[in-house]
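Schema walk-through. Below, the input block comes first and the output block second. Nothing else is stored per chain. Lengths vary across the set, and this one has 417 residues.
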Amino acid sequence: MNIFDFTQQDIKIRYVHFPRISSFLTEPVGDVLSRGPNSIDCLKFFINHVEKSLAYMVDSNHGWKIARWLDRRKVELAHGDELIAAEFANYEREQGQEAAEVLKGKVSSLLLSAPSNLVFTSNGVGVVVATHAGIRDHYIGKESKRIRDFCRYGDPEGFEESGKPIRKDWFVNHKSGETIVWGHDPRPQPMVINNTINIDQGVVFGGRLTAYRYPEKQFVAVEAQKDYAEDPESFLQKWKKERFNPPNIQSFLKGYSVKTEDYGEIKIHADYVKSAIEAISHYTVPLEELLYIPPTMSPAPEPSSLDNYFEHPQEAFKYYRNQGITTMVVEKKHMGSRGILLLFKDEETAIGYVGSAKLGTIYTRAGRGFFDQELSAKLIKQLNTDLHQGQYFTKYNTDFVLLDAEILPWNLKAKDL
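--- output ---
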């Protein structure tokens, strides 16, 4: 599936009415070449679309290196860039030297002419900025060697032991009104912080190809067919290995981020963390077992206007109608108490996730233990037996199951209140 299956019709329609914003769907802010296969086909795609004003290209670190290589500068092709040289060599063998030189000239022109940042305007006012690795507010709409370097590489501060650069969070200082859309530093999901949006989800590493739709302000993404780079040290492989590791309290005290499906990655600043950890440490199950806290049902935004009613469904229906929701599913609600069940395959497996040997835990929507320890242990043991009898862990190849449940009858919990 191609991501433009979702977008190309909208591009053609909106291009007429919003001549600077409409093509933003085909504005690559991540590297469009290196690491994966078919880089030449990808470059041909953008050459064709840029020539027809259906796409724009911004400068990038890999693009800049390949452009200099095509210009016969002395550069070291590494981190996947060597694959480009191999592709061009194969292209020359198949199409001939003259065709290869023509294509190299077009690619070089595309990459060398790409600006460090593009400002998309509405009614003459900048609303969206596209750049590769980030940008400072006072650089927006400008060009210089310093600006181009920042937009290519971000704001590095040294290197990790593995040799990978450590990057500063430039986006925390963004204060101007434009939405900055960037890539370079791949994340499992779009990261939305301080009116900046990272839409590099590492498709070449087996992640996703993400587009940001403006002015709808929506994400559209397609999954990679496979891990093309096959890099065991890639961010995605590291994230998959470590995502369920027991938390390190020190990593929370300085602030942390939460990944969400609808809003990408949301930053939680350090100012709010200590009081929250204080509450958790006194009243909830151990932090490493608190994998999930469910959303609660909020009441209607205002009291009922009907006589003799404090709350009435009419206010809820009105609220959703005002939000543009025209279809609702109404279900009968059984009077139970919200309970979260974290159930492990066996005690040894649990050690790797929560640091202690146990079959699981049951807690309330506020994170507190649902039952006393004796009853909880009895129920968890029975549930574990049932899951094994149904071969659940084997069938779904999983170490644990997390259930968001309604525990009946309601007075099992209410009698303790």
